[in-house]
Amino acid sequence: MSRTPARSRRGRARAGAAAVLAATAIAIGWTTADDPPALAASTPADAVVVATPPRSLTLTFTRRPESGHVSVSVAGRPVTAGGSLISGRNLTVPLAPATGDHLVAYHADFGSAGSVAGTVRFRVGGPGGSAAAPESADRPGHRHGGDLDPLTVGLLASAATGIAGGLLVMLRRGGRGRRMT
Q1: Do 56 and 95 form a contact (C-beta atoms < 8 A)?
Q2: CA of 180: how far to CAs of 1, 79, 170, 175, in Å?
Q3: Which of 88, 95, 149, 180 is 20 to 30 Å from the Cα of 33, by its Cα?
Q4: What single DSSP character describes residue 121?
Q5: Percent helix, percent strand, percent coil in the chain, to nearest 5
Q6: Which residues pair with 71 in a beta bridge?
Q7: Averaged pLDDT score across all residues of the chain
Q8: Closest Cα partner for 117 from 129, 107, 125?
């Protein structure tokens, strides 16, 4: 028994719709499974006391930043001694020698993955103890954009299903009706 052209088109339409749904599911899973950018470490580390002034400050992120800005100050006075340099996952800024509590404010952009901003504190010299304590548990950085929340994922899946269903209906109806001459 041979297949009729209408059945063949329906089979192709169903296969096409299934492919669209599979590709959408993979894309959604890929974007949500990817780790968001974050600050992984700093040198000097957050909330430490160092004996001598460091020549530079290095922030290490979980992925390579596309651009970034770092500002370091002591008692409101800037102590950065040049521009930021990106090397791999590191964002480094040279520092002028200074003692006291250092406040580091940073903002790193990761393109479509979003951006991360936050603060780090450390102390140079002075009596023992530690630098100013973190203001909150999530103080070392907060993110901007780059996440797909559950509502967005649901809307994207619904839209993809609607598009696939619309294509299926269009292809099914393509074999019926009047022909154009």
Answers
A1: yes
A2: 29, 76, 16, 12
A3: 88
A4: E
A5: 30, 30, 40
A6: 105
A7: 79
A8: 107
Task: State the DSSP code for 113.
Answer: G
- For 93-136, write each residue's pLDDT tens digit: 999 999 999 999 999 999 988 999 999 999 999 665 445 544 44
| Structure tokens belonging to residue 63 | 């992925």
CA 63 distance to own-chain centroid:
9
pTM: 0.58
Q: What is the pLDDT of residues 142-160, one digit of tens each?
A: 555 555 556 666 777 778 8
3 state SS of 55: coil
Report H helices in 34-119. none
What is the chain's alpha carbon radius of gyration, rounded to the nearest angstrom? 27
Provide the sign of the torsion angle of the four alpha carbons 14, 17, 19, 21, taken in this order.
negative
Tokens representing residue 138 in the block: 């999530």
pLDDT category at 170 given cuts 50, 70, 90 is: confident
What are the angstrom distances between the C-alpha of 91 and each of 45, 47, 56?
Answer: 14, 19, 10
Single-letter amino acid code for the residue at 40: A
Tokens found for residue 179: 């022909």
Planar angle of CA 68, 72, 78, nearest 5 degrees: 120
Place of tokens 């993979």: 26
| Residue 139 to residue 132: CA distance in whole angstroms | 12
